[in-house]
TrEMBL record:
Coiled coil: none annotated. Belongs to the UDP-glucose/GDP-mannose dehydrogenase family. This is UDP-glucose 6-dehydrogenase. The keyword Oxidoreductase applies. Keywords: NAD, Oxidoreductase. Residues 332-436 form the UDP-glucose/GDP-mannose dehydrogenase C-terminal domain. GO terms for molecular function: NAD binding; UDP-glucose 6-dehydrogenase activity. It comes from Microbulbifer pacificus. Its EC number is 1.1.1.22.
Length: 455
């Protein structure tokens, strides 16, 4: 089947590569000509395990094409995916200008029937706006062409996106039109996704608004689990309990489950913070106060300050007014990305921490297996930032070690080296990667999340 994808960001590129991998003829379109030129040469703009080989293989097989020509893109696919960004507006609501611009492009160039599929995470009701935008362009052109607008949200996780796309838990498709058109659109979507449903049916058909809300409900539920656990961790600290034992105790109940109950220094990334804010904003516009979601967000904002608070507690200063206590101190940061297996630093807890450390006059020596270039891009000229080539070199002449992202390579560090290099012999572990007693047995002070105070 011939498919066009607008937007070669995370979602668009992974979806395009995976659809090409199963044999569809995919054309990916982006207005960024530089990006398209590089993609044509197989140069991937993001770090995502497993993506580069399938992009290259499918460029070679001819199944994956790239263009920055909208007319060519529209004429290619019977199915037209919109997978462009929806960055948050100032009030937290999703900015739809790019989505609507694609709708307009499709209607400008289409000359036969199209199925327009919204893959971007968009507020409930956006399909109606896309339909209206496309229809007004067609009216302006004075042409009568049938088209459908449907919703097919994505559930990819950065770092595991190719696997999630090739082996989805579910494929949500929201279609509104009744009668013959609906049947035709359903059949096309079944055919498109048939290669991903070989063992059992994974497509869940529903109406468009329910599909749009499903995406937000899923992310908000996951964000809620995390904020809930962070709240429990803060309570655990105060009552003298260990959140890691509590986590195992509750996760063993299958109704709760082990996933997404890891406490830490706050959730980040391009999805949870944005989607929680957007649903709060949608609810507000409709006169409903989304109290749980507001709390989820507030707890997360507070949690992103947690590492700095632990540091201040250790050095005996007030986090709101640390004075000169931290001035000149050197903090090693292991991990900059918002989570492992990505180079993405959007809304990453490392950013909150670094900015607080710099404001207090401290220095940062940071190492991340993938996010160094991204850090350089964001904070290149920042005084007090040194990007180091290895985890060990980042320890050199440091006063304290802070673990911000749980990369596998930080799991079994050389504690003797840490003790030798880190002057104040203390680890602030924002991801509970280590057992406090094991670290303390080596003579190193340890602070974790929800695990009591350092000894
Ligand atoms: C998330 C969802 O998991 C995907 O299903 C969804 O498709 C995607 O958003 C999206 O909307 O595009 P992603 O943001 O890539 O995926 O990352 P996650 O693995 O969900 O992690 C998000 C954040 O939660 C990270 O900062 C992570 O460190 C944090 N987290 C996760 C915790 O603090 N504790 C946990 O137990 C799990």
């Amino acid at each position: 089947m011939k498919v066009t994808i607008f937007g070669t960001g995370y979602v668009g590129l992974v979806t395009g590569a995976c659809l090409a991998e199963v044999g569809h003829q995919v054309m990916c379109m982006d207005v960024d000509t530089h990006k398209i030129d590089r993609l044509k040469d197989g140069i991937i703009p993001i770090y995502e395990p497993g993506l580069e080989p399938i992009v290259k293989a499918n460029i070679d097989s001819g199944n994956l094409l790239f263009t920055s020509n909208a007319e060519e893109a529209v004429s290619h696919g019977q199915v037209q995916f919109i997978a462009v960004g929806t960055p948050p507006d100032e009030d937290g609501s999703a900015d739809l200008q790019y989505v609507l611009a694609v709708a307009e492009s499709i209607a400008t160039y289409m000359s036969d029937e199209k199925i327009i599929v919204n893959k971007s995470t968009v507020p409930v009701g956006t399909a109606d706006k896309v339909r209206a935008k496309a229809q007004s362009k067609l009216d302006e052109r004075r042409v009568h062409l049938p088209f459908s607008v449907i919703s097919n949200p994505e559930f990819l996780k950065e770092g595991a996106a190719v696997n999630d796309c090739m082996r989805p838990d579910r494929i949500v498709v929201g279609i509104d039109r009744e009668g013959e058109t609906r049947g035709k659109v359903e059949a096309t979507m079944r055919e498109l996704y048939a290669p991903f449903c070989r063992n059992h049916e994974k497509i869940i058909f529903m109406d468009v608004r329910s599909a749009e809300l499903t995406k937000y409900a899923a992310n908000c539920m996951l964000a809620t689990k995390i904020s809930f656990m962070n709240e429990m961790a803060n309570i655990a600290e105060r009552v003298g309990a260990d959140i890691e034992q509590v986590r195992q105790g509750i996760g063993s109940d299958p109704r709760i489950g082990y996933q997404f109950i890891y406490p830490g220094c706050g959730y980040g990334g391009s999805c949870f913070p944005k989607d929680v804010k957007a649903l709060i904003s949608t609810s507000k516009q409709l006169g409903y106060k989304a109290e749980i979601l507001e709390s989820v967000e507030n707890v997360n904002d507070r949690q992103k300050h947690k590492l700095f608070e632990m540091i201040c507690q250790h050095y005996g200063c007030d986090p709101k007014n640390p004075g000169d206590t931290l001035r000149g101190k050197v903090f090693t940061l292991w991990g900059l990305a918002f989570k492992p297996k990505t180079d993405d630093m959007r809304e990453a807890p490392s950013r909150t921490l670094m900015e607080q450390l710099w404001a207090a006059g401290a220095k940062v020596q940071a190492y991340d297996p993938e996010a160094m270039d991204e850090c350089e891009r964001i904070y290149g000229n920042q005084d007090g930032l040194h990007l180091m080539g290895t985890p060990a070199s980042a320890l050199h002449n440091a006063d304290a070690l802070v673990i911000v992202t749980e990369w596998q390579s930080f799991r079994a560090p050389d504690f003797n080296l840490i003790k030798e290099q880190v002057a104040d012999q203390v680890i602030f572990d924002g991801r509970n990667m280590h057992e406090p007693s094991q670290v303390m047995d080596k003579g190193i002070g340890y602070y974790g999340i929800g695990r009591g105070k350092a000894i």
